[in-house]
Amino acid sequence: MRLGLYLNLYGTPDERPRLADAVEQAQLAEQAGFDWVVLGERHLHRPGYHEILTSLTWLAAHTSRIGIATAGIVAPLYDPVVLAETLAHIDVLSGGRLTAGFVLGYRPEEFALYGVTQRERVARFEEGLEILTRLWTSDEVTYEGKFTSIQDAFLSPRPVQDPRPKLWNGGRVSAMLERTARMCDGWTTSFNELDSDLPAKIAEYRSYPRGEGTLGAEVIVCREGFCAPTSHDARAALEEPLRDLYDAYTGWKRTSADASRYTQGWDDIVNRSVIGSPAECADRIAHYEAMGADGLILRIQPPGMPQSEALKAIESFGELLS
């Protein structure tokens, strides 16, 4: 089972613009045998949140082997040509380690900030990914779309990876699963997707026809993760900062269908996570592998958790990988 480490990008006034903690975690994850470090995206966030593309570049510069991935970039917010060029260059700078994961986005404030109409998000997503993919794989692109028109365009340099970096897409509804199968190479689940729902959704995703030029049908399950000597130790380290994060999510996700899942009890959280002793975490990893997952992305450090606790958990997961 491949493991990814979802890095905390919350900024605080005393650390901006440093990403020292994230770099330290990424370097430890690389040594421990993780396959990816993974970044998310947020805007209009009062506590502070480091910008995703420059942070990706910074992490690439401070690591040498581990994959660098996003889960995900809010694709409808971006000019697709700028996004294609920036991500291609990150792949070049990292020596071919990029996986580009996208989401539709759901916060009205973020769409308003970028001057994008939210009801156009699906059309913008599909047009943007088509342009990005063609620019990554073609010598020259002419495209007349609803939102973007380009004539005789090309990227130089193109991505290092041949034929291109893999594309992931995240979400939970059937239309998203079909779109992912048609346009991308892997599906990233929500962190709070119920285990009971996953087998049917994995089967549905893999039942849709693959689009021309896609590179597979990976399933990447996103989960809270914390490995400690005992389950009691794991709960003692994780529960309070995770509860604080979930309390914040109830406000951020007020327009999202999954908002209620952030008010569930500890047992509900554990039952959809990889939390506990090494033996318990190993069992949970095997559980997701048997379910059909190709990889797990673990969110180990909610905001407010000391760096020392996060590093110990990363080391503990690394021992499971060795």
From TrEMBL:
InterPro entries: Luciferase-like_dom (IPR011251), Luciferase-like_sf (IPR036661), SsuD_RutA_monooxygenase (IPR050172). GO terms for biological process: alkanesulfonate catabolic process. Residues 16-294 form the Luciferase-like domain. Gene3D superfamilies: Luciferase-like domain (3.20.20.30). Pfam families: Bac_luciferase. The keyword rRNA processing does not apply. GO terms for molecular function: alkanesulfonate monooxygenase activity. The keyword Flavoprotein applies. Keywords: Flavoprotein, FMN, Monooxygenase, Oxidoreductase. This is Alkanesulfonate monooxygenase SsuD/methylene tetrahydromethanopterin reductase-like flavin-dependent oxidoreductase (Luciferase family). It comes from Kribbella kalugense.
